[in-house]
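Action item from last meeting closed. Structure (631 res):
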């Protein structure tokens, strides 16, 4: 059989087939060719011969297309090589292969090519994420070179360095310099969401938790791989399309699926299945589900939009002025239409809740239940995902007619086959992952005993202390100068850097423990000591900064006696940053002997995880600057 291609104008790889528009270069060559033959016709009429002899092929082609002879020769050589490749015949003058049988590609043209290496599914993504976490649990640094080798050894990834970097970025990791080393770190909002999730589950029996989720299945769900010799007898009857779609919602625990908790309906849209499950439909089903639960439960769900509709949403800066006034007046905050919109929105920002209140959470709370939300990209923390995998496998294996009615029947059968033993196995697997994540994130690893689990459930036993400098002569953000001046100067006082160090100590109930003001005095003047409130502490150091001795005196002489006075149960958790003034040996021994569990926060992360930095000092310093300017 000859290897020679047969020319066909309808072939998809023919760039000149009918219906395909010509690009600008091809149109220009067509114009040049037509103009050449019009000139040639006139030349033949006048002289009786062509301007360029017909046997001078290169010259004639060059004149026709307006290209150099060198370009014509190069393309001709390339065409001859392609002829030999496809026809198997040597290049010669008698070769009858037509140039129309062969196509030349554009040099250097970039063509889209889908990458099967980076196109991983959710389960592969979770496996890679857990593999990265394993490095941290072994106290190793996960860099791309190491990850590439270990992932290939476990058959989790088959691409190269560039593809692996793309996958890691898609999973929320980033390559960041930290403490002189470059480490692979997650984005801050993912770390924060996971920390909140894990803390809410500390001390909870995960086998009693209700795990909730939605999924979908198509009428064309079938096995896509099988042993075949490509003959008609071993070819399946798989459908060419996905077909109609079913949307399913359910919940379960180690005892099995919640009885009467199945929601199943047919989709009317072709996009993402989340488009069909809106908040009204979900809330109606969720209320019915709560009635099926036997007692107060912890319900875990993801952050889908229909799960996260906010109750009494705080208006944004683009909201109408009337809405801002209405929102403020509903909270008994003085506001009226005569105020500017900027002033109204400033009041909104000052009084908006720290965290949003979700409609679903309040509905569950009214019936004694608690909703806990999964962090982003952590579907492996939900065992119902593994249950859906088993049920869909049953549907794919037994689907023969590929109708939506048949798939609905098979899905119900698959759900019935998942018993309590299967649920317990999957919840146990997830419990192992969650406990491992708790150890990696340091949720309970720094606690000396199991009492820490109970402490985290009592807000009056969780404390955080931190210091901040308050400048007595803060700089202004603007200066006044004459229009047209090229050099602008700011006149400052010699004491512009003079400041006070203030230590604030608060606990999770939202209350303040006795604070301390630190002065740069060898001896505190009497007028200063008399001006400080009675329940405040006064400290001193040579430069006005916190020292080991000053912090030790605060804990031993102020904080600990206050704990005993307020009858706060010991032990308590006392979170501080890792500054050397907080980490002295004599302080650690005192805390160990007196029921104070001293926990140092992660370095270079206090701006994200320390409550004082996030919620207190920023607002307090803003008010301090305003009062200083008024003074």
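Sequence:
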């Amino acid at each position: 059989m000859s290897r020679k291609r047969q020319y066909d104008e309808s072939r998809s790889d023919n760039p000149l087939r009918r219906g395909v528009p010509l690009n600008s270069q091809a149109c220009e060559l067509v114009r040049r060719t037509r103009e050449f033959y019009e000139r040639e016709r006139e030349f033949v009429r006048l002289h009786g011969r062509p301007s360029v002899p017909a046997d001078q092929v290169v010259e004639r082609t060059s004149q026709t297309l307006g290209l150099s002879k060198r370009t014509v020769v190069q393309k001709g050589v390339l065409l001859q090589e392609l002829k030999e490749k496809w026809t198997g015949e040597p290049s010669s003058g008698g070769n009858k292969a037509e140039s129309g049988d062969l196509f030349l590609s554009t040099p250097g043209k970039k063509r889209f090519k889908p990458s099967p290496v980076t196109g991983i599914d959710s389960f592969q993504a979770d496996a890679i994420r857990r593999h990265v976490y394993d490095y941290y649990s072994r106290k190793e640094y996960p860099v791309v070179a190491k990850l590439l080798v270990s992932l290939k050894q476990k058959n989790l990834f088959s691409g190269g360095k560039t593809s692996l970097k793309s996958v890691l970025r898609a999973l929320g990791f980033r390559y960041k310099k930290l403490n002189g080393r470059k480490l692979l770190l997650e984005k801050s909002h993912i770390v924060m969401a996971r920390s909140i999730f894990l803390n809410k589950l500390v001390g909870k029996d995960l086998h009693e938790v209700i795990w909730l989720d939605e999924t979908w299945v198509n009428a064309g769900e079938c096995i896509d791989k099988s042993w075949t010799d490509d003959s008609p007898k071993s070819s399946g009857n798989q459908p060419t399309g996905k077909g109609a779609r079913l949307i399913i919602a359910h919940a379960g625990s180690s005892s099995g699926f919640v009885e009467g908790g199945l929601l199943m309906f047919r989709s009317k849209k072709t996009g993402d299945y989340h488009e069909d499950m809106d908040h009204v439909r979900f809330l109606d089903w969720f209320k019915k589900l709560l009635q099926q639960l036997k007692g107060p439960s912890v319900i875990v769900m993801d952050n889908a939009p229909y799960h996260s509709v906010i109750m009494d949403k705080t208006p944004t800066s683009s909201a109408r002025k009337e809405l801002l006034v209405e929102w403020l007046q509903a909270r008994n905050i003085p506001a009226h239409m005569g105020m500017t919109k900027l002033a109204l929105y400033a009041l909104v920002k000052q009084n908006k809740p720290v965290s949003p209140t979700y409609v679903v959470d309040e509905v569950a709370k009214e019936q004694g239940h608690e909703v806990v939300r999964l962090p982003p990209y952590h579907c492996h923390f939900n065992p119902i995902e593994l249950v859906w995998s088993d049920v869909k496998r049953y549907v794919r294996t037994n689907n023969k007619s590929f109708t939506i009615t048949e798939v609905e029947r098979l899905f119900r059968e698959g759900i019935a086959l998942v018993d309590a033993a299967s649920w317990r196995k999957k919840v146990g697997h997830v419990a192992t992952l969650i406990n491992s994540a708790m150890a990696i994130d340091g949720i309970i690893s720094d606690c000396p005993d199991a009492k820490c689990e109970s402490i985290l459930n009592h807000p009056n036993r969780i404390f955080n202390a931190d210091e901040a400098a308050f400048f007595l002569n803060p700089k202004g953000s603007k200066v006044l100068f004459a229009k047209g001046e090229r050099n602008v100067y700011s006149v400052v006082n010699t004491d512009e850097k003079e400041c006070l160090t203030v230590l604030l100590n608060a606990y999770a109930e939202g209350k303040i423990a006795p604070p301390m003001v630190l002065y740069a005095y060898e001896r505190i003047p009497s007028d200063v000591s008399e001006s400080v409130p009675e329940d405040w502490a006064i400290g001193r150091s040579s430069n006005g900064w916190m020292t080991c001795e000053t912090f030790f005196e605060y804990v031993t002489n102020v904080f600990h006696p206050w704990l005993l006075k307020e009858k706060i149960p010991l032990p308590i958790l006392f979170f501080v940053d890792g500054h050397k003034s907080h980490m002295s040996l004599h302080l650690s021994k005192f805390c160990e002997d007196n029921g104070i569990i001293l926990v140092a926060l992660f370095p270079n992360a206090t701006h994200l995880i320390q409550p004082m930095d996030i919620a207190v000092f920023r607002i307090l310093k803003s008010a301090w600057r305003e009062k200083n300017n008024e003074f």
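Note appended to the action item: Confidence is low (pLDDT under 50) at residues 1-12, 91-102, 179-183, 445-450.
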